[in-house]
Amino acid sequence: MMLAKGTVVLLLLVLVVDPVVGGCVPSKMRICTQQHKEDFVRICRAYLHKTSPIMLPAKTSPCCQEVRTLLAINSKMLECIKERIICDEHKDDDVFDTSKIQLFPAYCTLVSSPPPPHHRHPEEVKKSRYVQ
Is the Cβ–Cβ distance between 24 and 87 less than 8 Å? Predict the structure, then answer.
């Protein structure tokens, strides 16, 4: 059986382009490992559920610490983990809202301003430029 030239080209395009278009990146091109993904999901699970409102972790939380650790390895690490969740865990498609992941890098790396004087230790307040 011989296929028409156009059919062969179309078949090749589907095989080569479909994984990328469908949101999946071949594993040999990934910068994150399965372990990176599993650790991130375990630590940040509460903030990824579809049914919950958008909640961001405290900047001092283990989740934000994990985000900072992953971003220190590579700035694209969370994008890779998002793709792994989408590609590897089809059973979790109904559980996790992977779009929430894009909020973590900017939020978890923002520097917090110091607490107001009435929330700080008295010795720290004395040294502060706020109280003269």
Answer: yes
Q: What is the pLDDT along the chain (132 residues), one digit of tens a residue?
A: 455 665 444 444 444 444 444 556 566 668 999 999 999 999 999 999 887 678 889 999 999 999 999 999 999 999 999 999 888 756 555 688 889 999 999 999 876 655 565 655 555 545 555 444
The verdict on pTM exceeding 0.85 is no
Cα distances from 111 to residues 7, 56, 59, in angstroms, run 55, 15, 9
Burial (CB count <10 Å: 0-12, 13-18, 19+), residue 24: middle
